Protein Abitram (Lophotis ruficrista), 135 residues
Amino acid sequence: RICVITLAEAHPLLQSGKTITSINYQISANCSRLQNKVSGKSKRGAQFLTELAPLCRISSSDGEEYTIYSCIRGRLIEVNENLLSNPAILQEKPSTEGYIAVVLPKFEESKSITQGLLTQKEYEEVLLKRLHSSS
């Protein structure tokens, strides 16, 4: 029922061979994802995220900055603080140790969220359409 947020294989940071220089969980002057303190079985104190809530900003060596969004409603259980000292694992192991965050959707919403996800085949079709429309 938890959702592990990672970079998609097709994300420009994983495709273009860019070097990640930093990852910043400070979203605004008053909001840092690092200040997320979760306790107990009911995950008290967890920051609540909407689909459009930014999780972090990733800077690359060419000056580009990418904002990574939650894409899912739920409680922020943890952020991957290992990325702060070793941002390269985001590219080296994007779907395992290089995860960005863990989000826990509301129990009632988790089934509809799961049903709304694309299969691997559907995702690849979306990427193909995107590729053809941009060329």
Residues 3-134 form a domain with the OB fold (Dihydrolipoamide Acetyltransferase, E2P) fold (CATH 2.40.50.100). The longest helix spans residues 120-134. The first strand starts at residue 3 and ends at 5. The radius of gyration is 16 Å.
